[in-house]
Amino acid sequence: MEEAEKSSCQLPDVGVLNLGSGQGQHENTNQSETKLALRVDEEGNEDSAPATEELSTSKYSHPVYRELSILNGKINKMNVAQLKSHLRERNLDTSGKKLVLQKRLKSHVCQQKLKESGKEDETASHRNLYYDYYLVIDFEATCDEHQNPTTYRHEIIEFPAQLVSTKKGQIINHFHSYVRPLINPRLTNFCTNLTGITQDKVNFAPTFPEVLKQFEAWLEDRGLTSSETKMTVLTDGPWDMGRFLYQQCSISGVPYPSWGKQWINIRKSFCNFHKTEKMCLKDMLNHLGMRFQGQPHSGLDDSKNIAQVAIRLLKDGANLRVNEKINIRKDGSYNPRERVVNNITRHNFEEIKRKKGLVANNKNSNSSPDESNLENVSDSDCDDSKNEESEPLWPDTQDVKEFPDLVNANVMKEI
């Protein structure tokens, strides 16, 4: 460790390397490292790097892009101790796997250099965000290990939501309520052991229609239903909206809420941003150097941890967008020949942006509701494709085992 720290001190400071001095021109200027230049799209993902000849075109002819290619080459060669040393010097987070640290440092250096060179406006859409708020939801529902998951009617028994301000990069409010199930009013031992929800917590809880009404009043009281407020639901996987909420609304005979028709599946966003395989919540936290706080499968604790993953992605430069939607008709029914949950590709999202005015928000926008009112706590892509044919099948085989009806609605019984 001592040797590693020493080597990090010998490395030129990536933040002050000046090509004009000639130092950078004699180091790492071969073609392979020139191709390492960092380019980010508006979602914070690295585009394929420009070739040497592309750097001479009008868009990338500015010397800063050649400088960035050299700096990125140096960052790629750093070990973990060196990366952490440079991150600490810039008061940046040092948690996470090596690739996470590399991306964090590259993103910071890129923004710094572009700002110094006057090219900052070219990354404005990357710095600004599509949404003012993420509404992080993680339902818990009745379950029975002995029942067939394709026919078992799950009922929501815990309804938590964390409100994340993208401007502040933190949770600013939460809603929480237990829900009394009606079809299976007595919880199984399996359900209680898994979720930590005891029978007495649901016995005197309000029913789902009552909780939904409370929740939507909570949204309205905080100005979150206004057309001027850009907010979207964020979940860990497709099940909360595509399985639990959809089935519960059918059971309770209430319309499926408009706020739940599109959402950010953080698993897809995470693997797309960090170029990893799809990970569960625990693995995403581990990849970021974070630990799960609280009790797993507690809806309230799960939603808090999911929110922390989203906040970390936000701080590392990701611009999260909706990437899934529920495939139901206007009357709330579904087409049994189609999937219940569909992808929203980048191409699809361009149309959504146009219709909803989701041109990356300026973080200083005055259109957001008054957050002084929001802070009163209430307690009541892996998918980079641009067309449907080439995009991967989501949910994948792991999801099919848990909820087969998400992929094949034919097996879903009418309720």
From TrEMBL:
Domain of life: Eukaryota
GO cellular component, one term: cytoplasm
PROSITE patterns: SAP
UniProt domain SAP: residue ranges: 75-109
Gene Ontology biological-process entries: regulatory ncRNA-mediated gene silencing
Subcellular location: Cytoplasm
InterPro entries: 3-5_Exoribonuclease, ERI-1_3'hExo-like, Ribonucl_H, RNaseH-like_sf, RNaseH_sf, SAP_dom, SAP_dom_sf
Keywords (A to Z) from UniProt: Cytoplasm, Exonuclease, Hydrolase, Nuclease, RNA-mediated gene silencing
Region feature (Disordered): 1-35, 355-405
Pfam families: RNase_T, SAP
Any one GO molecular function term: nucleic acid binding
Primary location group: cytoplasm
Composition-biased stretches (Polar residues): 24-34, 361-379
Record's protein name: SAP domain-containing protein
Organism name: Scylla olivacea (Orange mud crab)
